[in-house]
Design a protein that fits this description.
alpha+beta; Jelly Rolls; eight-stranded mixed sheet; four-stranded antiparallel sheet; binds N-oxalylglycine; binds nickel (II) ion; IPNS-like_sf; metal-binding; Oxoglu/Fe-dep_dioxygenase_dom; metal ion binding; iron
Length: about 350
Amino acid sequence: MATAATKLLLIDRVPGINRVPNSYIRPEADRPNLTEVEASDASTIPLIDLQGLFGPNRDDIIRLIGEACQQDGFFQIKNHGIPEEVVQAIMNIAGEFFRLPESERLKNYSDDPSKSTRLSTSFNIKTEKVSNWRDFLRLHCYPLEEYMHEWPTNPPSFRKEVGEYCTRVRELALKLLEAISESLGLEREYISKNLGKHGQHMAMNYYPPCPQPELTYGLPGHTDRNLITILLQDDVPGLQVLRDGKWIAVNPIPNTFIVNIGDQMQVISNDKYKSILHRAVVNCDRERISIPTFYCPSPEALIGPAQGLIDHEHPAVYRSFTYEEYYHKFWNRGLRTECCLDMFKIPSA
Ligand code: OGA
Ligand code: NI
């Protein structure tokens, strides 16, 4: 049973709410159509075993990663090297955080997207017309020592457990970036060297049970604006990925992460790799927690198509820009499905 604290920040705080408030209801043309969503298995969204990434099978694994980035924009990974206890600990901490009394949670509240640590609800309540059925805590997490002092201190082990997780996920992200660089035929360090000082952000998404999930979203369709996302989710389905015009449910597989290509990777790869639309839907019965890590350039980093991928047949699709410029455009225009990338395209001759 949902406790009194398992409520959205801004929703009517009436116990046993059995209808979605009007502010969450999408226009009819923009609803999730849940009956038309297709199921997936490990072959629909490739499940890649990273076990031999530093052994003799490296080339094979890199080929699989490259194919997944090109064809799907999404893949799942197992044997990723992050210990189960570390993953369990952060999932538990996230659950505990969202079950804290409201007064405790709200100490972290802000609706200003430029704040590096903040609890908020929906997506961007200052700009959006319809709300989303989600609360989220966003944290910057690299370099750790610059941000950790801003993080919540309740639950008491929050900083320790989350810090440990962030360090591990960063190591994994760097390995993936090397593999993705190689899969593009670039030198192993190419991507990593072009991210300035690097950045790492994290969200803890909390989707409470929803009485009318067919009327609203946890998160509507969007692409991730960062470089790559490494998503940890609990055992409740909710993530869906758009493929060939159809939404596909990515059902959770224990001990795996979902990796997806973000807008910056699409730019660096000069459109070879795709930043794919995805969304989160909610359900009547169970709360859901997901924890994406958004690996990204630092704000001053200059992003553009890799020189090595530009030639006569493949002219540069995008102009160069700083990540800061991109980031501001993104937050100001809201979570729309049209690609923010279009604003950075070079008009074709
Ligand atoms: C996101 C996202 C999906 C999920 O936070 O960008 O796509 O399953 N989340 O929560
Ligand atoms: Ni996303």
